[in-house]
Write a structure and sequence with these properties.
By secondary structure, the chain is α+β, with helices and mostly antiparallel strands. The protein is built from four helices and six strands; from the N terminus they run αβββαββααβ. GO terms for molecular function: coenzyme F420 binding; oxidoreductase activity, acting on the CH-CH group of donors.
Length: 143
C-alpha cells in the first residue's frame, strides 16, 4: 500500500474518507470528509489534503495536536495514512503561502470536486473561515 493506492481508493468513493483526530482526553474524534492527494503548496511533497470548517472540532483538535489518521475504502479494500498535520487558512497562517482562496480550490479539486461559480465558492469558504489541512504521510498501510 502506498499513497497512489490511497489516491485511487479515495477517488473511487468521490473522495469520501474518514479523518480521526485526538481529543484533549486522548479519545478519538472522527468525521467523514472529502479528501484527495496533492502536492503540499509550499514543500511540493505529496500529502493528503482536505478542507475543514473554521469552527469544527477536528480543526480545534488539529491546532492543539497536529496529527491525523485518514482512511479510505473501496469495496473490501482500505488504506490508511497517518501523519503530522499542517493548517492553512484565515486563522492558520502557513509560511510561504499567500493565496488561501486558490489553495482551497486546489484542495477541493484534488478531492474530486467541481464548482460552477468559484467566486461563490470563495465567499462561502471565507465566511465559514475554512482551512486547508495537509497530512504528511508518516505511515501508509492497508489491504
Amino acid at each position: 500500500m502506498d499513497l497512489e493506492d490511497f489516491r485511487t481508493m479515495a477517488s473511487g468513493e468521490q473522495g469520501l474518507v474518514v479523518v480521526a483526530t485526538a481529543r484533549a482526553d486522548g479519545s478519538v474524534q472522527s468525521t467523514v470528509v472529502n479528501a484527495g492527494v496533492m502536492d503540499h503548496p509550499v514543500t511540493g511533497t505529496p500529502v493528503v489534503a482536505f478542507v475543514a470548517a473554521g469552527g469544527s472540532l477536528k480543526l480545534k483538535n488539529l491546532r492543539e495536536r497536529p496529527r491525523a489518521t485518514v482512511t479510505a475504502r473501496s469495496g473490501w479494500r482500505w488504506g490508511t495514512v497517518e501523519g503530522s498535520a499542517e493548517l492553512a487558512g484565515p486563522d492558520d497562517a502557513l509560511a510561504g503561502l499567500d493565496d488561501v482562496p486558490q489553495l482551497l480550490r486546489d484542495i477541493f479539486t484534488a478531492a474530486g470536486g467541481t464548482h460552477d461559480d468559484w467566486d461563490e465558492f470563495d465567499a462561502t469558504m471565507s465566511r465559514e473561515r475554512r482551512a486547508g489541512v495537509f497530512v504528511t504521510p508518516g505511515r501508509v498501510y492497508g489491504v
